[in-house]
From TrEMBL, chain B:
GO terms for cellular component: plasma membrane. It is found in: Cell membrane. This is ABC transporter permease. InterPro entries: ABC_transp_permease (IPR001851). Keywords: Cell membrane, Membrane, Transmembrane, Transmembrane helix. PANTHER family: ABC TRANSPORTER PERMEASE PROTEIN YPHD-RELATED-RELATED, SUGAR ABC TRANSPORTER PERMEASE PROTEIN. Its main location: membrane. The chain crosses the membrane at residues 21-43, 75-96, 102-120, 132-153, 195-216, 244-263, 269-292, 299-319, 331-346. GO terms for molecular function: transmembrane transporter activity. It is a multi-pass membrane protein.
Length: 371, 353
């Protein structure tokens, strides 16, 4: 005797599994006409957002593969990237070489931070997400210590445009004029009046191909095994702890690169705020794309960027046109970002329980059949 | 006693008390010792510490029921705070000045706390094992949701709404003329020019702490502890686990609501919109500094933890400022509080569930 699901149950399950993207489609479908934006404007905005954010979001994929959930510790990588950017701004290295150098500087910092983060997450097994989230906050303190007190005092930074008037510490906002849109403008083409930064998109494509390739390597397969069942993986001779640390290191390094790409598009660095927001937005975007805590792929990234940022672009105007307050739309989009993460986390836990329940029922049925 | 015994007993003491707690305790002690030498008035510092202790202790107390029932650290404290804010704003809307408004605020906050807490509890029952992350985001999304509500709800008391439009609540509302300092000034003792003890506020906390302590020793309270330490065993002995957990969440939410009211009466302002956003973290780390763990907490932990945490928060800016003429207190606060939470989350012995 096996357990069969009826057609309606199956349909409901598919609906349930894709509830968040469907919800977002509905919000956007209502919001776009309300906001009154033209299709051309929206399309060009979306292209900008894709080139700006997808690298960061892709960096979340590998820890999910390794079963460590959403890596809120990606802020660590973002901090490393920002340190790289501050240093190259001080040295006055501009354009593509500046971006590459910033990436090179960020790499060892990211590796170190990621390794440390992975170590700690290994100690907090079963609650990786909340721990990685607190790690982000903790490192923010250390980051402030380094950037606000160390730079200019211990770490040589000379540029007066960067330093606070007191002689040490970095200013609240750093103008990244030297590398602003350096990569985006390298190969900018216009399609139907929509500017498309081909070079950035190319970099993102390469990253996606890397992820696809990586999943097929030995290490990638090991990570999948660890993600599915740690004990089985251990029995199969995989170094579980080591594999988990590597997954976080890769994620952190990519987050650092992603942050550099993100900031070269924006053009200004909010020294003490930029990195704190990025984790939340990236996670929310990935979840909007239909990913869950245990399963995510590249399709989710792009669907997520498009839907999430569409909502982000239209909601202030929609709020203004609907109720007469743009502020309302602002709050609405913050609420939706957090709400989406909440719903996804809840659905994941509920589904995990339900699957365990199904497995139990199946087992009971099999036992009965044997007797 | 020979040296070996001494070191081993010292090690035992360190182990039972926890190294981070000792470091933090010694740090605070050294702050108090250095304070007079760098020209910081001890009386003012102590008075500030007591004041902040009273302001925050109830919110730290709000952690206790949920930790007891095994729901983990209540990162969803903002939900309770929102119930408190609703109580406060409705009380001001009713517009009865004086201490009565404080009682009214508690009265109005209670039903919201119960309803929100009940829903929150139902949610947490469905996600056993992943409570803390979900709690965090329940807190965040409820704060964001209330941001919309503060703009839309039909409040009309001119002290609360924006002056030019007449609608939408202000980001900060003064409690002056309503319940500002009602507890602080009740029976307050002025020891010296600089040292005032806010007796009423401390008494209010003591009262709530006693109620919680007594509750934890009733039959239901014992059941709560049983659910927290071993839910399978608790179910086997006939305890309705989900019901007890929901009750603990309601209690935590209600205490959070009362906590923010106590905070407001001393602070003098009601902070709306993004105000409650990060309020859970200091409370969580305070109880952990006091010696609680993810699934064990006592009233003593609350008292010690709040005192140590608030002591550091009060003392570091003044002492640091006079010592090295830079305000590094913010960094120290971030590192200490989040470091403490990390420490608690990574304890091996507690990963039992």
């Amino acid at each position: 005797m096996t357990l069969q699901m009826t057609k309606t149950q199956k349909l409901l399950r598919i609906m349930g599994n894709n509830m968040v993207p469907i919800l977002f489609l509905v919000i956007c479908a209502f919001g776009i006409p309300l906001s009154g934006y033209s299709a051309n404007f929206l399309a060009s905005e979306i292209v900008i957002r894709i080139s700006r954010n997808s690298f960061l979001i892709v960096s979340l994929l590998i820890p999910i593969l390794a079963g460590m959930g959403l890596n809120f510790g990606m802020t660590l990588g973002a901090m490393a990237g920002q340190i790289g950017l501050i240093l190259i701004s001080d040295w006055g290295i501009v354009g593509i070489p500046g971006i590459i150098l910033a990436m090179i500087i960020s790499t060892p910092i990211s590796v170190l931070l990621g390794w440390w983060c992975g170590k700690i997450l290994n100690m907090a097994r079963g609650r990786e997400m909340v721990t990685s989230y607190i790690i982000g906050f903790f490192m923010n303190g250390i980051y402030q210590l380094v950037v606000l007190y160390g730079m200019g005092a211990v770490i040589p930074v000379r540029s007066n445009a960067l330093l606070l008037p007191r002689g040490y510490g970095i200013r609240n906002t750093v103008n990244l004029i030297g590398i602003r849109r350096a990569l985006d403008d390298l190969l900018l083409i216009r399609l139907f009046g929509i500017p498309i930064p081909l070079a950035t998109l190319l970099v993102i494509t390469v990253l996606c191909l890397f992820i696809l390739w990586f999943k097929k390597t030995k290490l990638g397969q090991d990570m999948r095994a660890v993600g599915q069942d740690m004990e089985v993986a251990r029995a199969a001779g995989i170094k579980v702890e080591h594999t988990r640390i590597i997954s976080i290191v890769i994620s952190t390094v990519f987050a650092g690169y992603g942050m550099i790409l993100y900031l070269q598009n924006i053009g200004t660095l909010n020294t003490y705020n930029s990195h704190m927001q990025i984790g939340m937005f990236s996670v929310a975007a990935l979840l909007v794309g239909g990913a869950s805590v245990s399963k995510a792929n590249i399709r989710n990234v792009f669907l997520g960027v498009i839907l999430f940022h569409l909502m982000f672009i239209i909601s202030p105007m929609a709020g203004k046109n609907l109720i007469g307050q743009a502020q309302l739309g602002e709050y609405f989009r913050v609420f939706v970002s957090y709400g989406v993460i909440t719903i996804s986390l809840v659905l994941y836990e509920v589904r995990k329980k339900r699957d365990q329940h199904y497995v139990g029922l199946q087992l009971a049925a099999d036992q009965e059949a044997l007797q | 006693m020979n040296l070996q015994q001494l070191t081993s007993s010292a090690k035992g003491l360190v182990k039972s008390f926890g190294l981070p707690r000792i470091i933090i305790g010694l740090f605070l002690l050294s702050l108090f010792i250095t304070a007079p030498f760098v020209g910081v008035n001890i009386g003012t510092s102590l008075s500030d510490t007591f004041n902040r202790f009273g302001m925050n202790a109830v919110m730290v107390l709000a952690m206790v029921p949920m930790i007891h029932s095994g729901c983990g650290l209540n990162f969803g404290l903002p939900l309770g705070i929102i119930a408190g804010l609703l109580g406060a704003t409705i009380s001001l809307q009713v517009n009865i000045p004086g201490p009565t408004s404080f009682l009214l605020a508690i009265l109005f906050a209670t039903p919201f706390a119960v309803i929100l807490g009940w829903g929150y509890g139902q949610l947490l029952n469905r996600v056993k094992g992943g409570e803390m992350m979900i709690a965090t985001y329940v807190g965040f999304s409820s704060v964001a949701f209330m941001c919309i509500m503060w703009l839309l709800l039909p409040f009309s008391n001119p002290t609360m709404v924006w002056g030019y439009s007449g609608t939408g609540l202000r980001t900060t509302i003064s409690t002056e003329g309503y319940y500002r300092h009602v507890l602080n000034d009740f029976l307050s003792i002025q020891l010296t020019d600089h040292l005032t003890i806010p007796t009423g506020m401390l008494l209010f906390f003591a009262l709530l702490a006693c109620i919680i302590w007594a509750f934890l020793h009733t039959k239901t309270g014992t059941a709560m502890t049983a659910v927290g330490s071993n839910s399978v065993f608790a179910r086997a002995s006939g305890i309705n686990v989900d019901k007890i957990r929901t009750l603990s969440v309601i209690m935590s939410t209600w205490l959070g609501a009362i906590g923010i009211l106590v905070y407001q009466q001393s602070f003098g302002f009601i902070q709306l919109y993004m105000g409650p956003f990060y309020m859970a973290l200091p409370a969580v780390s305070a109880i952990l500094i006091g010696g609680a763990s993810v699934n064990k907490a006592s009233i003593l932990n609350v008292v010690i933890g709040t005192f140590l945490f608030q002591g550091i928060v009060t003392m570091t800016p003044s002492v640091m400022n006079s010592m090295i003429h830079t305000d590094m207190s913010e960094v120290i606060r971030i590192v200490v509080s989040n470091g403490m939470i990390l420490y608690a989350l990574t304890r091996k012995a507690e990963v039992t569930r």
